Fold:
Amino acid sequence: MAYALEGIKVLDFAWVGVGPITTKYLADNGAEVIRVESAAKLDVLRLGPPWKDGQPGINRSQFYASYNTSKKGITLNLGKPKARELVRRLVPWADIVVESFTPKAMRGWELDYEHLREIKPDLIMLSTCLQGQTGPNALYPGFGQLMAALSGFYHISGYEDGSVCPPYGAYTDFIAPRFSAAALLAALDYRRRTGKGQYIDMAQYEAALSNLAPALIDYFATGRVLGPKGNASERYAPHGAYRCEDEEGNEQWIALAVANDAEWRAMLEVLGAKAPDDRFATHLGRLENRQALDAFVSRSVRGWRVMDLVAKLQAAGVASYRVQNCVDLHQDENLQAFDFWHWLEHKEMGPSPYEGLQHRLSRTPGELRSAAPILGQHNEEVLGGMLGLSAAEIEQLQKENVVF
Amino acid sequence: MASELLKGFRMLDLADEKGAMCGKIFADLGADVIKVEPVGGCSTRRIPPFLEDIPGEDRSLYFLAYHAGKRSVTANLESTDGRALVAELARHADFLVESFPLGYLDSIGLGYDELSRANQRLIYASITPFGDKGPAKNYKAADIVTWASGGMMYLMGEEGRPPLQMSLPQAGMHAGAEAAVASLIAHYPRQTSGLGQKIVVDMQACIVWTLMNEQAMPIFHGDFLRRSGVFVGSADARRKMVFRCADGHISILIMGGAVGAPSTIALVKWMDEKGFASDWMKTKDWMSWVPGLLMAMTQKDREEIDELEDRVEKFFLTMTKHEIYREALKRRILLAPVATVADIAADEQLEARKFFVKVDHHDTLGRSLTFPGPFARFTETPIAPPARAPRLGEHNREVYCGLLGLDLERLSRLSAEGAI
Structure:
């Protein structure tokens, strides 16, 4: 069966998280994506854990591999004029160019949009960096962890006493790519209708603030600053995570949210518990007496096996699930039924675990078409096959650290 | 003027908070997004907090933010006429997004199979909390439940205290944006085949995807991470990510090696200028300093890190987060303030890029509101500030009469009968 994006060609200079995750959407759906990397400045994710067998190596990182499925990988050291010349020869092939360096890099190499559009007038080019291509902090270096702090997500993660408990990892790296992928796909449709390419400047900072919009609008309107509020909710009570019986030495918690009186009564019945006093008689009362309510729920769920409780609560109409650790996720029957986990054969790592797609198309489904490339895996195929360089020429360029 | 990116395409938005972001992205991209609400209004109109804490169907900050740029019609899906109207709208639509319990729309004749018979171009996205095939496929999920089922909650919080949510719902944001991407992926082949398709978005999977490099840790390294407050890494090798300063917190991960050493050297130099660096920090070979986050550290590494983290915090406590951030930008030190919305609102970078936009709400709220601006800058087809979120059923006449060709008499009859 044909893939949705078959025939689309992407030249991908992006590295680390946001850019590669963006082009992964295209690659997994059939676009031909050539990632341009270099040992002269390795994608830092190639150096990051987890590593196959726990042993570091530039071709052993699942961190890198997860974001680069279905792509081809070539090595060109863009610091060398000959490498940039090869890039210029590849650009006419591409519908889309993506890059995620700090803004001055592509300009310095004369590989920015103004230069590339001279070669390919209807090119669609996306630059994604932390703070955007313009402005005083455009050259801000850093990673998504810092961006998650800068764009407000750390501050709204914590207990009511103000302690900060950030989300794991580079949270905004998983917000921005959905926006940049949508941007590219819409730009493709616009080009189809009008023949016009264009340049897209996506600041990960700005894209991430979409997820914070209500709090920003509130602040501008009233000056209220949203802070950490534990697991409190203004809509649900109880609402939070409550500890059940430990299993195999691991803590087990249930997350639940009760929206109204009917759900509250259903929950009491499942727990075989009686509300200790009439503060909990109404939804408003439960919202206003949250701490006492949390203490009551905590006492009531202790001793339950978490998935038994989930099954009973869900049958009674109460939104709930286990707070899952990473091992739980790999064993999760729902994720398995959605065909989320995949083992792919990687050239150096062998069989390796990959996350699959988070959506499924009925007619033209995407899939992980291949494991991530090892560094320079497709040099011959691309430089030889597409650009017509001979094996001797490629070897010479390798000696000159151009193909590197 | 709205962006021309998706000009001429129409989306029916039947999603609640699990998918409001999908239609928001389409509206930003210039599509005509029609929000179909029950007669009593979409549940998202009732999500607190409300503007100035005054409840009202046009005052939910969530609703205002994520339905801006859309039109609103009402349709009672429990009535035959209401369902017929939605089916008719779907004939005039290119996209549909919904987040009802699995199978509900099928049961009332508005499922994909039914609607695509009348409009084979239709792309129909269903957002589901647990997918459409597993044992939990009919389970209910609030945002915090998906945060838990997807694994992010497990990693947030302190040992000895409960795992945590974020103070603003996030799962629906990811799922809605994922539905937008998937819909646009399906759109591409439709331009030649003329055929739409059905999409299922799995919210749980959307959150699993945010766990970055954690997924393969237990497989390759034999253990999984646990929540550890401001620290990251396994218990015997953990590193501090967030430090106190005079007026809040700073996030910095102090690293060595090619990636981190230049920043750490610059930090130590700055600390030294103010008398906060120990002698060993000034002579340390930071390029070759890479104490693993996974492998147990040596005793020496541990002691050095403890001292470094202690001194960095004492140093930061002498300055505000703004002072630290400004100086770090000059010195190219990899850090960021733990910013509040007030910090973001005053940020010079966003100001220089004229990010925030005013959206006129005078007719509904007697004022304008300031919104975050476009998620990306397009040279040919810029994203314009949105129109304010619609009042309930504001576009009934425009859509039902203008688009579907109903006459006014029929419209008022439908209204009287409770169909719209």
